Amino acid sequence: SIRLWDVNTGKQKTKIDSGFKVNTVCFSSDGTTLASGCEYYSICLWDVKTKNQKAKLGDLNNNFRSICFSPYGMLLAYGSADKYISLEDVKTRQQKAKLVGHTSYVQSLCFSLDSSTLASGGGDKSILLWNVQTGKLKAKFDGHSGTIYSVNFSPDGTTIASGSEDKSIRLWDIRTGQQKAKLDGHSSQVNSICYSPDGTTLASGSDDNSIRLWDVKKGQQKAKLDGHCSKVFSVKFSPDGTKLASCGDSLIRLWDVKSVLTNNLLQENATTGITTLLISQNPNFDTQGALILKGEFVNHYGVDLKSLIKSKGGCILESQIELQQN
Q1: Which fold has domain 2-269?
Q2: 258: helix, coil or strand?
Q3: Could you tell me the pTM of the whole model?
Q4: Which residue ranges contain the repeat WD (predicted)?
Q5: Would the pLDDT of 84 be above 80?
């Protein structure tokens, strides 16, 4: 089945019974149509409002692994286990082009924002770039040692990111065809990657149960999100970039991107060398029952607040430990 969820309430809005195992889904740019790719069946187009099937595309008894609407909603691309990619005119339901070039199944597809280029990746470990207008191959990127499960264009169209079975994420310069960066950190295959709308951050989901956020410019990990107890199959930023959705272990989780990055920064800075806590100007706090191992506690005037902490019910263990040692 296919389920649609209200992001604000977290409640299910709609359930569409497709009758077959669904491998992949994709919304049209205007949000009125949903495409689904089923295992050993076909591509179905659904009216989001009525839940009725609008059309059926593709060959029956095929295994459709990836589908993608063009940003302007005029074209639908889908890839299958038969190694080819089909470009369909959404309005006329006619095939515009059949792209042949992969030597194994097609696992992932992504249009550039201007709809001029289609990227594809799959079981042959290669990334192919296609001219959408002519249907001809523009470029081929090789470097991964395993199946490519996800490809994604940067918002400015200069870079293509790829996630693979080989546990790595790679960034490719579209103009030169050269690898710009290799992002290592996942301990198992990378199933999904997604650029943030501003292009500064790349999210990735993996079989290692984790989600990671990467600084694209520096090529470094910004944050690691743990919460799923099984494989993370897909990650997607909200259009405004403030939320990240992830799915795995039969759950969909929504993450607040800003708080995740802030919390990660605090964790990175919370080393044993930092023992100072700066209290706000209005120290209205309750430390009843708190056990504090060690630290320096001052207000903005530099006044020592240890006596205040003790009077509020807190216990600083540092002095007791020193007495025991002496």
Answers
A1: Methylamine Dehydrogenase; Chain H (2.130.10)
A2: helix
A3: 0.75
A4: 99-140, 141-182, 183-224, 225-259
A5: yes
